[in-house]
């Protein structure tokens, strides 16, 4: 409450009270925490902020008093011996001692919080979620449930006011369950940040970093990637949907069923028609490849080459498959080997027939299997 | 007077070289640079 | 202070070189100081222009003016131009001008090396600007979209402009190490007889500590970017996890340089304040010895707390606790410095000319930035603040007052000494008020943005962040354009104005005020004698 008041006072300084926006909530402090761990962090934030505000007021008052009273224009004579008084001789001990007291107060409280939140609880059953950062989307693997969610931003036309705060597939998590997040990256550094969960962790290629949380209320919590990861760093929202364990179970079963269906479709030993592959491929291309190579195939050169009229795309199928499956080291082009044969086949078929690329080629899942 | 200035010049240069050498030392040792160079060379010849 | 001045031999003054030779071949500390300051001024405007483009883009949500890569390129460029182009050369310019005058030395210890360390800078600056410009030419590769931290693996993806940047960093590093060596040698060997090290003016002390820090940390950055270069071109994998390397190693090397760098930017300005405040409070600096002790402590502790920039990389509990406590402890010496400044003002007879106005603004705003720094040092809370706009607000509150305003104060304080003319006090005060209000309008709202969840270095944001970003951008325009007034005041002062006395300010004390304004080309050719009394 107090902070709200201070915040409002600060707003008034900027003369903003008359222009309350109608379109979206804006915050001046952290959003209300959604986990006990986050609550601890929120409390230590408020404590240090209050101490800082108090010290700031002390310094401001002394300085303002001094510049008002100790000025030549008021006829004040400088006290040439102030630095030789007992205070002048001992202030180098007194001041550090006082500051040390404040420091220890802060450090002591912070240390207590740190011990509670930093390490993942041992000897308990936690639900594992692997969070993988990609340029520029998130992959969430529910290691205990064998499901995977790919989470990408939604263009402005579809997300409206939630633009850059909404994704196509949310990270659905159960409440009252201890969850361990395992962070890693497929390419460059990213960082997972949802303010309501109150922690941030870097996703580093080759590393697995851990955090944990236990959500204590249902709701939708929105965050963003917090470590500069290249061109579309701004387009990596994270949306956590916190639901009751029962609802979560139902969601998991649905996802598992979908996964089984997709696997069956992909492994079905059949030959796909060109049109089937192209229509599947178009959808996949637009979600997975469109961010860089663009829906119109023109790319964003020089970082992201166009695929429309590209010699690679109209050249031999093997080379095309190779770059899709293995990526191109040293560039933003990642290896897409985690896609199934059908998905790769339809993307490649689409690319070879879309826009001005009229190769007429059809790539079947079986061809992809051979190329792997 | 002149001797004094020459002496000062010498002392200046000596001290500067000392610090320059120190900077180079920091450059060369504060990271496992050479170690990795040797690793690369080793794997290239093999 | 009591000393006897010897009248300089006028016969020496007639061989002042003229034309381009005077500047290109200069070994005169005053001319080189001027060159440094002019270079810094040019870079200040370039860095400022890139910052204003960034803020113009962020005025409204959506992508209006720039594309994301250009935006990130500007973010990178702004930081590097300001740190390496503007603040460090400006501080070196002040050092070149003032240190020999303050310690009664005829020139810097190694005048030819002084010339070299300046003339590397234009080349380095060109490289830096090329790294920004090259991608706009055909075949120029991608833009530098990594921010000034240059973290791999992202920096390995960038095109050839990254190589220009690495080369520029090497040149800048060589320049500042050479300048540091020169300053240390000058301060240790060239002091006037009788000026013991504990009688040295505080500005000289701050530069002594700064120069030591630079020699210790700049080679480490050079090593880091060299490894980056090798990773990019020669198949090494220092930072590539797939090849057995470690991406986090670069972060450690970078911040081992990067954190002391903050004090490199800060300390010279603290030195300026230690002269400005006593002058305008008309009483001696409070706590000379504790000031010296505090800055040595800041330098020492500042070397061993770098990883507080990387709390989110997944360090062990023990490591983060150490870095947290170490970082919080820095508030002790810094708090002592601020206290000494306030105690110098306390019971003084103050007047508020422009340098003093900046000094008071620094005390207030730097305290603000320092306190938000303590908040950031707290690991659990930093889980939230890290890489958000809160951090951007924090470090601008530290570096803008702590470094840039200190340099402004120094320029206004010594400009009459350098040019022999008083600057236009009325215009300078107008500049001060526009500047300070613009600054606060720009960066204060960014605290709220960060707390509400806006990450830094994003080109586009959700509508919930619109209001504060709009205020911030308006402030940035006011702040940015106010520097044109600064430029005008300087040009006006150089061209003419009320003649300055050698003492310039009523309360000014120290050797630099014993020489004429402007000082003759050669000063202190025979050293002054320093009396018993401490400066």
Detailed description of the structure:
- The complex is a heterotrimer of chains A (372), B (46) and C (535).
- Chain A is α+β, with helices and mostly antiparallel strands and 372 residues long.
- Chain A folds into 3 domains: 29-69 and 91-119; 127-253, Cupredoxins -  blue copper proteins (Immunoglobulin-like), CATH 2.60.40.420; 268-371, Cytochrome Bc1 Complex, Chain D, domain 2 (Orthogonal Bundle), CATH 1.10.760.
- Chain A is built from 10 helices and 10 strands.
- In chain A, strands 3-2-1-5-8 form a 5-stranded mixed β-sheet. Chain A has a 3-stranded mixed β-sheet with strand order 4-10-9, with helices on one face.
- In chain A, a hairpin with a 4-residue loop joins strand 2 (137-142) and strand 3.
- In chain A, helix 2 (36-69) packs antiparallel against helix 3 and helix 6 crosses helix 9 (341-353).
- In chain A, 36% of the residues are buried.
- Chain B is mostly helical and 46 residues long.
- Chain B starts with a helix and ends with a helix.
- Chain C has a single domain (25-513), classed as Cytochrome C Oxidase, Chain A.
- In chain C, 67% of the residues lie in helices and 1% in strands.
- Chain C contains 16 helices and 2 strands.
- The chains are: A alpha+beta (372), B mainly alpha (46), C mainly alpha (535).
- Chains in contact: A-C, B-C.
- The interface between A and C is large, with 104 and 104 residues.
